[in-house]
Each structure stands twice: as structure tokens, then as C-alpha cells.
Design goal:
There is one protein chain. With about 300 residues, the chain is α+β, with helices and mostly antiparallel strands. About 50% of the residues lie in helices and about 15% in strands. β5 (about 260-270) and β6 form a beta hairpin.
């Protein structure tokens, strides 16, 4: 298949797809941008006349660069201080309206993808998210088609068994988000506990840079007291809470003087917050405003 708009540089034409691939592979905006830079350098050094299908070539390049980065990143994450959560991005309401697309960039999905091996993650994304055939994936990863089919089956079952159940009702999510912000702003312990499921779990990623719980927190009382305790600290003074589309879902953004200080995402189950994720690592908040890239 010939790529459209032959006069346009294929790299620029497919940049959103390439960023989307790298981000889903790595879970960080910073690493995804680094991968695109490396891919751009490689593309510029390529004899383009010898490339019959630029899109396939570029996806292959980004996927394999991401595989290499992810393999080394997993070693680093083993020594990470506290829970590791992906870098959040602000996304447009259009993504939230597309339930299937929103699910592929949700914080919950990115956390599940972290439990796959690098190759399983690549195969799952290329097959289930981007719709590539087993043969195309085999060519991309230099593996046999039979091997890719086995990996795809294993990865899909793995993701399905670990993907959390959650409600997708937009109105209910908006209502809970407003109540969550009001309870936090007012320091209302009872109101906050009422929003949390009996078996709620809370993860916070400070990366050892800022204050965060280094282990998951369990139960409404423990989670609610910890949240209000953090908000009561002098370092949290002046925090402005606002609803925001984060990774395809409505969540909460805490800002200080217009700069992001924390991103809160959650899974809603039976009208209550089941899983709550706090990203407060400053190094993981810089890419919040690159969300429109995920439309590819």
C-alpha cells in the first residue's frame, strides 16, 4: 500500500502514530520523545528510495528502539523508590468519548502492560491496539509468525486476567470527581471515606523525590487519612484542584501557581473509587501537556 501525501515527509505524517506506539510501549513521555528523536536520526540516515513502505519501516524502527529501551528500563525500575506509575498526559475529550481508545492509554492499562515482558508488550500493542496482522508483527520483530501467534495469545490472556473492572458512565465519573475534589478541599474525612470502596487501594509515585507512600495503602480510613494528611502539609498550601482529562479519563489535577504538582486517576466500580493512583513525581509531570500526540 502506498502511503498518502507522497510530498510530505513520512516521519512527520506518521509522527502521532509513532509517538503513540512509543508511549504505550514505555509508559513515559520523556522516553517516548527520546525514541522519536532516535528514530528521526535513523530515518534521516536511511536511503529512502530503498524503503518501499515508510510507515511500516518507521513503526518497526520505533517498536524495536522501544523494546531496547524497555529492556534496560525494567532493570532501573526494579530499584525504583516506591510504586512505579506511568507518566500522565492530558488528553482531549475526543479520546474520552472513544471508550476503546481511552482504555488503551488509561493509567490502569499502562500499569497492567508493565507486567508483560517487553516482547509481549510489543506484540499485544501492535495486535490489539494498532490492528497489525500476525505476519506484519512477525516481520517487525524478526520472529516467526507461529511464535508471534503464541506470544499474542499469552499476552492477551495475561492482560484480560489483570485488567481491572471499572464503570464507564461519564456522568457518574464526573459526579464522583467533583465530590472528591470538594472533600479534599474541605478536609472532610467522612465525605472522602464515603467515596472510597471498602477494598480501595491507593498507589503514589514520588520517585524518592517528593513525599509519597512507598507501599500501597489499603482501606477507606487509611487511604482517606493519608490523602488529607498530604494536603494538610505546608508544601501543599495553595494547591488548586481541577477536573482534567488524564490518559483518556476524567481525573483530578493539582496545580501550584499554574504548574502541575500532582495528577490523580482512579477506577470507578459500583459508584465508588476502587483504585486510586497519585502521580506526584515532578520528573513525570513535565509531559502532561503532550496529550494531543496520543490521537495517532
Amino acid at each position: 500500500m502506498v502511503d498518502p501525501m507522497p510530498d510530505q515527509d513520512p516521519f512527520l505524517e506518521h509522527r502521532r502514530l509513532l509517538f503513540s506506539t512509543a508511549y504505550r510501549m514505555l509508559g513515559t513521555v520523556t522516553d517516548a520523545e527520546d525514541i522519536l528523536q532516535d528514530a528521526w536520526i535513523k530515518w534521516n540516515g536511511t536511503d529512502r528510495a530503498a524503503v518501499d513502505h515508510p510507515k511500516a519501516y518507521l513503526v518497526r524502527t520505533v517498536t524495536n528502539l522501544s523494546l531496547n529501551r524497555l529492556t534496560s528500563a525494567r532493570v532501573t525500575r526494579e530499584s525504583y523508590v516506591g510504586p512505579w506509575l506511568p507518566e500522565p498526559v492530558l488528553t482531549s475529550p475526543d479520546i474520552a468519548e472513544d471508550t476503546a481508545l481511552a482504555d488503551t492509554v488509561s493509567t490502569a492499562m499502562l500499569v497492567v502492560l508493565e507486567t508483560l515482558t517487553p516482547v509481549e508488550r510489543a506484540v499485544f500493542l501492535l495486535r490489539e491496539v494498532f490492528g497489525y496482522s500476525h505476519a506484519e508483527i512477525a516481520d517487525t520483530l524478526d520472529r516467526s509468525e507461529a511464535s508471534v501467534r503464541q506470544i499474542a495469545h499469552r499476552a492477551k490472556n495475561h492482560v484480560q486476567s489483570r485488567r481491572p473492572r471499572f464503570d464507564t458512565d461519564k456522568a457518574a465519573r464526573a459526579h464522583i470527581t467533583e465530590r472528591f475534589m470538594a472533600a479534599c478541599a474541605g478536609g472532610d474525612l467522612n465525605a472522602l471515606m464515603d467515596l472510597l470502596a471498602p477494598d480501595v487501594t491507593c498507589w503514589s509515585d514520588g520517585g524518592g523525590v517528593v513525599t509519597a507512600a512507598r507501599r500501597p495503602l489499603y482501606g477507606p480510613d487509611h487511604v482517606a487519612r493519608w490523602i488529607l494528611g498530604v494536603l494538610a502539609k505546608p508544601s501543599s498550601a495553595g494547591a488548586e484542584l481541577s477536573a482534567a482529562e488524564i490518559n483518556g479519563e476524567l481525573g483530578t489535577l493539582a496545580s501550584f501557581g499554574g504548574n502541575p504538582g500532582a495528577a490523580f486517576t482512579f477506577d470507578l466500580v459500583d459508584g465508588r473509587i476502587q483504585n486510586l493512583r497519585f502521580q506526584v513525581n515532578p520528573g513525570k509531570l513535565a509531559g502532561l501537556y503532550h496529550g494531543t500526540e496520543l490521537l495517532g
